[in-house]
Write a structure and sequence with these properties.
Number of strands of chain B: 17
Number of domains of chain C: 1
Structural class of chain B: alpha/beta
CATH superfamily of the largest domain in chain B: Type I PLP-dependent aspartate aminotransferase-like (Major domain)
Largest sheet of chain B: 7 strands, mixed
Number of helices of chain C: 4
Chains: A alpha/beta (about 475), B alpha/beta (about 450), C alpha+beta (about 120)
CATH topology of chain C: OB fold (Dihydrolipoamide Acetyltransferase, E2P)
Oligomer: heterotrimer
Strand content of chain B: 15-25%
Order of helices and strands of chain B: HHEHHHEHEHEEEHEHEEEEEHHEEHEEEH
Distance between the termini of chain B: 66 Å
Distance between the termini of chain C: 9 Å
CATH class of the largest domain in chain B: Alpha Beta
CATH superfamily of chain C: RNA polymerase II/Efflux pump adaptor protein, barrel-sandwich hybrid domain
Structural class of chain C: alpha+beta
Helix content of chain B: 25-40%
Radius of gyration of chain B: 26 Å
């Protein structure tokens, strides 16, 4: 990667333009009254088309993507993004549709929703899905609104609490708070699983539900799930499944069968759609039969005659959570992926992602601390180096240092300092689209880094050495925020 | 195993890996899953298809959609997408990257977000923008939550009935679950009624007021005195804006707003049946700490080079968990890049020209439709840009259906006999003449 | 070794209190600032806000963490340290000089529940 030091504003010169527009052939000219006009033109850049193309190409070259290299970012499922998906999403017969067009003129688009819903039903064991949430956290929020609505409709307004494990993704408690719930944390046991006894203490008539991900954020299957589901249901609560960790279950286990009532999926993780540097994603929410009436609106329905229509009114609905029907372009990509996989290949998604994670874990656990032994699913967590090289006057190498050193070797770093159960958490998720050769190279580099740490931790402290920029002064950035140019 | 293009593993790789792990089979890796939860056989999915079959399937499904010349807005506008934009967005370094947590190898993403924030500030006149929200309606809902969070203990917000219905409904949904009371301010003579606003403010307990700069009737609202009234009541003023129109109309900052939100779709983003778009949110500098979502800041690296980082993260869910300003994590980053590249190409003059062409086209269509005698002015003399509303003598549904048959999407039904039309720079005078000719046939 | 000052009262959530008549001057201990690392922002209440003993009144932020501040006493905020708005690092430089808020106490007997320097030293040991 090459350092390139320009902002688009710095290429601007008055009079340059990067667009063409048709000649104005209208006989009338509208004028905005002076009192409603802005005083000065906005300070946007004035640049030519080649300036723009070269600038953004240069910027892109300071970025690392899945197409660049291995991206073992735990809980993010950075799998390969198939190129046919992009072609499908760019088809003018889909991109040219206005969301308010009459249903009879968008039957194809509605069928895409319906087809995707059928596939997600088959993979999750749930009854129906909404596609309106635009991201994972948005799906969580929607799912929690559905849970709240369900209890409201039963007149059970005393259920104000949501239980969240201490190992949960940060979005879980945040989403619960935005949905108006009080968050109660349930502790994990030494073996990384939910403490069922502690859970029993928390359950009661004030509990609306529990949010879980299974496998959990340590990559461990919650073996007591059946007991947990029975306890929560008995106490009148519902089970929410955070689909961020769905990948190892693809084609192998269905959340609906485990007793979950509501779940979201991350199409930008499990269903191969590109993450785009932080979205657009898509967070469809699935529900068990008793919650279908609470799904947000609008919703695609197939009529008896095979026609598709939009359900726009339903008094029991949780409400409207986004402008229209979510990120349609992302849903198109996910359906293309499902069609490619088909029933024949889907199981391998789960199995191979699990195989890769266990393989890395076994090959590195002598040099990185493995806090919990045993088989993992698609990801696992190390708690820092076995030998961090600490010595008189020289602090040991931390997880941050390991992460930064990986960048020098051309790998993206794992997720670090999450989950919060361990101080030096290093969360590794390889995905099913990485070859044994790639994993072997990663393992070799991780061992090399461990050796460097033992020898001279300063090599790691000073990493990265070979990236476009080195470690930034984040304290300065936060104390004196510079948040825009000019 | 017959092999699959996205899985690199050979049978030999699988056995070697299993043996390193000490497992006999792939099934062994699920030994911790209770037997009853293991799926027997294949899930009920369709058969795997070849790439060409997948393409053919989507072409066939796509052909079931009817392409229409769009003469409707309602918050989504058919503006032109310069070819450079999708070209840049398809660069895999942008497309296939995750959130820029490792800033040393994410300077590309971080830098365009910084540019995006700068451009949103330039358009709105506000001090600080975040890195994007899901869409306009959710941005409005988050702004309402932010106003309530800032107000301490006050839980009532006022929203204009002039907002697009999808904005109002999403705000209501978020508010319902957040324990926020939503009261509406009516539209009188085509604009959010200032006296009604003052009256509602006087009832007290108001944390925020949400009003559209350009309302669902297409009218550019006059918000003179709004900021004084709202601030006088100790509340925050939130303006819902069309970022394209901001090239010419008074900015939310000029109206004295505390928060500006809206949908970036009008910046050339394909309509794509509702998404992906990009919501934006910008605030006065004083409110920075309550701003939800990611923010990129400028700093230097340890060699003194200019560098960009995600900053002020202590507001966010991954640190604050239940106490975060919002639960938002992934936003619409690639669509923020879309807006950034679009605005770079268009610049201030291009964007003004887009508005001029659209507004002149709308004014022309407005005049031609009135001349048919089938419509009356809904709000005479009220200023509009690319979208306007008329009272139709033909029932809206009849008119819309008739137009659809001729290949037009026009006459959005706003109720009470009102219909709206929109024109962008993509529509030609010939298309407008054809639409008007088609309308005239309805009578015949 | 963290610095501890004689004559101040300390809470288990690491705030210190200096009593000036009926006013409690409140800050965080040297131990707390060291745990936080470089402080980038101090979230403070407004003057005239009511605070209660044991309840949050603000937060300290660093680049990667946020830590809530709990009031050791109940009462009304009569001043906040405006210097911290621009220079949060003052807490890192001298946690006992950089007070955060001053509270007019409604129940000075709440001070009895706090630790003295010796007890606090044992508490953080």
């Amino acid at each position: 990667m090459i350092y390139y030091d320009k902002l688009i504003f710095e290429l601007s010169a008055p009079g340059r333009k990067g667009y063409t527009l048709p000649a104005n052939r209208y006989p009338v000219h509208a004028a905005v009254p002076g009192t409603l006009r802005r005083a000065e033109a906005p300070a946007l850049p004035e640049v030519s088309e080649p300036d723009v193309v070269r600038h953004y190409t240069n910027l892109s070259q300071m970025n690392f993507g899945v197409d660049t290299g291995f991206y073992p970012l735990g809980s993010c499922t950075m799998k390969y993004n198939p190129k046919i998906n992009e072609e499908i999403a760019a088809m003018p017969s889909f991109t040219g549709l206005h969301p308010l067009q009459p249903s009879e003129t968008v039957q194809g688009a509605l069928e895409v929703y319906w087809e995707t819903e059928q596939a997600l039903r088959a993979l999750t064991g749930l009854e129906a899905f909404t596609f309106n949430p635009c991201a994972g956290a948005h799906g969580e929020l929607t799912g929690l609104m559905i849970i709240k609505r369900y209890h409201e409709l039963r007149g059970d307004t005393a259920r104000t609490k949501i239980i969240v494990p201490d190992s949960a993704h940060g979005t879980n408690p945040a989403s619960a708070a935005v949905a108006g719930f009080e968050v109660v944390e349930v502790k994990s046991l030494e073996n990384g699983r939910i403490d069922v006894e502690a859970l029993k203490e928390l359950l009661g008539p004030d509990v609306a539900g529990i949010m879980m991900t299974n496998p959990n954020t340590l990559g461990l299957f919650e073996t007591e799930i059946k007991t947990i589901a029975a306890l929560v249901h008995e106490a009148g609560g519902l089970l929410y499944y955070d689909g961020a960790n769905m990948n190892p279950l693809m084609g192998v286990v269905r959340p609906g069968d485990m007793g979950f009532d509501v779940m979201h999926l991350n199409l930008h993780k499990t269903f191969s759609t590109p993450h785009g540097g932080g979205g657009p994603g898509s967070g469809p929410v699935g529900v068990a039969p008793h919650l279908v009436r609470c799904l947000p609106l609008p919703r695609v329905i197939r009529e008896a005659d095979g026609h598709f229509s939009l359900l726009g009114a339903e008094e029991n609905s949780a409400g409207k959570v986004s402008g229209f029907l979510g990120n349609f372009g992302v849903i198109l990509r996910a359906l293309a992926y499902i069609k490619m996989l088909g029933r024949q290949n889907v199981r391998r998604v789960g199995e191979l992602s699990t195989l890769g994670a266990n393989y890395i874990k076994e090959c590195l656990k002598d040099v990185y601390k493995l806090p919990i032994e045993g088989v993992c699913k698609h990801e696992f967590v190390f708690d820092g180096l076995v030998n961090d090289g600490a010595r008189e006057g020289v602090p040991g190498a931390t997880t941050l240092d390991v992460a930064k050193r990986l960048l020098d070797y051309g790998f993206h770093a794992p997720t670090i300092y999450f989950p919060l159960l361990f101080h030096q958490a290093l969360m590794i998720e390889p995905t099913e689209t990485e070859s044994k050769e790639t994993l072997d190279r990663f393992i070799a580099v991780m061992r090399q880094i461990a050796a460097e740490a033992a020898e001279d931790p300063d090599i790691l402290h000073n990493a990265p050495h070979d990236t476009p920029v080195r470690r930034p002064d984040e304290t300065q950035a936060a104390r004196n925020p510079i948040l825009k140019a000019l | 195993m017959s092999g699959f293009p996205y899985f690199p593993h050979t049978e030999g790789d699988i056995s070697a890996m299993l043996s390193r792990i000490g497992a006999a089979s792939l099934k062994d890796l699920y030994a911790d899953v209770p037997e009853e939860f293991l799926l027997k056989g294949e899930p009920d999915l369709p058969d795997a298809l070849s790439e060409e079959e997948v393409r053919a399937w989507f072409s066939r499904i796509g052909a079931k959609n009817q392409p229409l010349k769009v003469f409707v807005g309602g918050g989504v506008y058919d503006h032109y997408t310069p070819s450079v934009v999708p070209y840049i967005l398809s660069r895999s370094e942008f497309l296939t990257a995750y959130t820029p947590y490792q800033c040393e190898i994410s300077q590309g993403t971080l830098r365009y977000i910084f540019e995006y924030q700068s451009m949103i500030c330039a358009l709105t006149g506000m001090g600080v923008s975040n890195a994007s929200m899901y869409d306009g309606p959710t941005a409005a809902a988050e702004a309402v939550r932010m106003a309530v969070a800032s107000a301490k203990k006050r839980t009532r917000v006022l929203v204009s009935e002039g907002l697009f219905p999808q904005v109002l409904e999403v705000v209501r949904t978020y508010a319902h679950y957040g324990g926020i009371t939503v009261d509406t301010v009516p539209v009188m003579k085509g604009q959010t009624c200032p006296n009604c606003l003052r009256g509602a403010l006087a009832e007290g307990d108001v944390a925020g007021v949400l009003v559209p700069q350009i309302n669902r009737y297409g009218i550019i609202e006059d918000h003179s005195g709004f900021a004084e009234a709202v601030h006088g009541a100790g509340a925050l003023l939130i303006e819902y804006c069309d970022p394209s129109a901001l090239a010419v109309i008074k900015t939310p900052a000029e109206w004295g707003a505390d928060i500006a939100v809206g949908d970036g779709q009008a910046l050339g983003i394909p309509m794509s049946f509702g998404g992906p778009y990009v919501g934006f949110m910008a605030v006065k500098k004083d409110h920075l700490r309550k701003l939800p979502g990611r923010i990129v800041g400028e700093t230097v690296d340890r060699d003194g080079k200019r560098a960009y980082v995600l900053t002020l993260q202590a507001r966010e869910q991954h640190i604050r968990r239940a106490k975060a300003t919002s639960n938002i994590c992934s936003n619409q980053s690639l669509m923020a890049l879309f807006a950034t590249v679009y605005l770079s190409l268009l610049g201030p003059e291009g964007l003004r020209e887009v508005n001029r062409l659209s507004a002149d086209g709308a004014a022309y269509l407005h005049g031609q439709l009135l001349a048919t005698g089938l419509f009356e002015e809904a709000f005479p003399g009220k200023p509009f840009l690319k979208e306007f509303t008329l009272v139709s003598k033909i029932p809206a549904a009849t008119l819309q259906k008739h137009l659809a048959k001729a290949g037009f999407f026009g006459a959005l039904d706003l109720g009470e006999g009102r219909v709206s039309f929109a024109v962008t720079e993509r529509r030609t005078k010939e298309e407008i003449d054809a639409l008007v000719a088609c309308v005239k046939e309805v009578r015949l | 070794m963290s610095k501890i000052i004689e004559g101040l009262k300390y809470s288990e959530s690491h705030e210190w209190v200096k009593v000036e008549g009926n006013v409690a001057v409140i800050g965080v201990s040297d131990f707390a600032q060291a745990e936080m690392g470089d402080i980038t922002y101090v979230d403070m209440p407004d003057v005239d806000d009511e605070v209660s003993a044991g309840e949050e009144f603000g937060a300290l932020e660093s680049v990667k963490a946020s830590s809530d501040l709990y009031s050791p006493v109940s009462g009304t905020v009569i001043a906040t340290n405006e210097e911290l708005e621009d220079s949060p690092e003052a807490i890192n430089e001298d946690a006992y000089a950089a007070w955060i808020i001053k509270v007019e106490m409604s129940d000075p007997s709440e001070l009895d529940a706090l630790m003295d320097a010796a007890a606090y030293e044992a508490f953080i040991a």
